[in-house]
Each structure stands twice: as C-alpha cells, then as structure tokens.
C-alpha cells in the first residue's frame, strides 16, 4: 500500500514538472532570444543556450524609441493605478456599507468590465479626438479607467464585506466620524485588498494594447504597441522584441515580489464575494 502511494506521488510530481516546463519554456526562450546575437536567432537547428550572450538587443530596443515608450508605460500605469485604487477604495466602501444603488448598481459596475473593449473603441476615439486627448498621456489614462475602475470597485467591495462592521462602529463610539473611522480603522485592515486591487490595476494598464494602439500615435505610445511593431523590411526583429518583452515583465515581477505578503492574504480575503 505504501509502495503504491509512493508511486502515485512520484507520478504526480513528474506531471507537475512536465506542466511547469511547458509553461516556463516560452519565457525561457524569450529571455534566451533577447541575449542572443542576431545571427543566432533564426538558425536551424535552434540554439537553446547561446555561447556568445550579448545585451545588444536591449540597447538597440531602447535606442529605437524604447526609452520614451518605457517612460510612457510607467507614467500611464502608475497614474492609472493610483487614481483607480483611490476611487475603488471609497466607492467600494460605499457599495459595501451603504448598499448604494442596491445590488443592481454593483452588478452593473461589474458588467461594464465584461463589455469587450472593441465595442467602445470607435466612439471613445471620436470623443477623445474632439477633446484633443488623442496621443496624450492623460487621454490614455482616462481610457484605461474603462478597464480598471469597474473591476477594482468590485474587488474592494468584496474586501469591505469581509471586514466586520463592529470595527468602525467601535471607532465611532469612541468619537470618530464615519470618514475618520474609514481612514484610521477600515483602510489599514483592508491593506491586503488594496494591494491586490492596485496590482491588478497596474497589470491591466501595463499590458493594455487595443486602446493604446488606437488612441496613440508617437508621443504617448506604450510598451505593448512598440513590441507589436518590432519589424523591418525583412521581417520581425525577434531579438529586440524579446528584449522589450523581458523589460516589460520586470515591473510586474518586482511588484509581485514586493507585495507578496499582502497578496497571499488579500487573495483569500473574499475578493470574489458577491
């Protein structure tokens, strides 16, 4: 019996290793391609480990407008994340504690996130063109709110529903106003939920492609648009594309590592509660 159990355990771990390799290999290949000299990228048979690693792809990508684009992406993602998180923190509290609009408003907010972005991109472009917001950082940040705010509000509402009302009621008995109780008692308890909300908002904004390619031209281009446009007359510039993609992964990995202790608690705090 013990031998059979050991065999099952070994087989389970072997399957996990196979699945892990299947998921991690594209990331490994992208990183390896970014360090290869250009003449090693398209050779056959493929080179899995370069013997002449170089950073030329990264420098070439940055020289090809990469520096400006990375700066744009950081500015757009940070502005979107900060404003979205602040709006969601207060709006989610209103929905959770005061039942603002009832359940209909809460589900309507979530349903706007289910709307395909392509369904609103044409009227959004016409509005932005009329307002002079095309190819501007503020214009792209406002457009990203369509993606981030509804989901963030719904997440924060779920986190607040898991926080006992007695906490703020006790604070108000001790002399705090409702707003003061929110700032001093509820928000510190909701920090894990705020961290999760901020990270999701950052990821949505950082990786967003459709709004960025339609609403920008040169001045406000972001990372996904530049990566998709890495080609020349003879084909795709794979090494530069891989280098920019690696640079694009770095902020997400760093933020996830820094916020890890909040994310584990935040993701189990009831973020998907109805």
Mean pLDDT: 85
CATH level-two architecture of the largest domain: Orthogonal Bundle
**Structure classification:** mainly alpha
Biggest sheet layout: 2 strands, antiparallel
What number of structural domains do the residues give? 2
Helix and strand sequence: HHHHHHHHHHEEHH
| Percent in strands | under 5%
The top level CATH class name of the largest domain: Mainly Alpha
Please tally the helical runs, counting DSSP H or I stretches of 4 or more residues: 12
According to CATH, the fold-level topology of the largest domain is MetI-like fold
Radius of gyration equals 23 Å
Tell me, briefly, the overall form: globular
- Low-confidence spans: pLDDT under 50, at least 5 residues? 270-274
Q: Tally of extended strands?
A: 2
Oligomer: single chain
N/C terminus separation:
44 Å
Helix content: over 70%
Walk me through this protein's architecture:
This protein has 274 residues and is an all-alpha fold. It folds into two domains: 1-54; 57-267, MetI-like (MetI-like fold, Orthogonal Bundle). It contains twelve helices and two strands, in the order ααααααααααββαα. It has a two-stranded antiparallel sheet with strand order 1-2. Helix 2 (56-97) crosses helix 5. The chain starts with a helix and ends in a 7-residue tail after the last helix. The relative contact order is 0.13.
């Amino acid at each position: 019996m013990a031998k059979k159990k050991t065999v099952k355990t070994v087989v389970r771990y072997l399957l996990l290793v196979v699945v892990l390799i299947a998921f991690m290999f594209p990331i490994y290949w992208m990183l390896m391609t970014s360090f290869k000299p250009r003449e090693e990228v398209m050779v056959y048979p493929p080179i899995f480990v370069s013997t002449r690693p170089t950073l030329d792809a990264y420098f070439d990508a940055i020289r090809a407008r990469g520096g400006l684009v990375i700066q744009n992406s950081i500015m757009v993602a940070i502005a979107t994340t900060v404003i979205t998180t602040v709006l969601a923190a207060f709006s989610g509290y209103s929905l959770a504690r005061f039942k603002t609009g009832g359940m209909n408003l809460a589900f309507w907010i979530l349903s706007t996130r289910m709307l395909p972005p392509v369904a609103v991109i044409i009227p959004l472009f016409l509005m932005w063109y009329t307002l002079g917001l095309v190819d501007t950082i503020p214009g792209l940040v406002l457009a990203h709110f369509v993606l981030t705010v509804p989901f963030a509000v719904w997440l924060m509402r779920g986190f607040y529903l898991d926080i006992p009302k007695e906490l703020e009621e006790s604070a108000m008995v001790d002399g705090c106003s409702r707003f003061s109780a929110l700032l001093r008692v509820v928000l510190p308890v909701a920090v894990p939920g705020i961290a999760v909300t901020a990270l999701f908002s950052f990821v949505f904004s950082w990786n967003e492609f459709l709004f960025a390619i339609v609403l920008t031209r040169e001045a406000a281009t972001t990372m996904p648009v530049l990566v998709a446009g890495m080609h020349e007359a003879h084909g795709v510039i794979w090494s530069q594309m891989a280098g920019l993609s690696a640079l694009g992964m770095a902020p997400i990995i760093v933020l996830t590592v820094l916020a890890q202790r909040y994310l584990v608690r935040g993701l189990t705090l009831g973020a998907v509660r109805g």
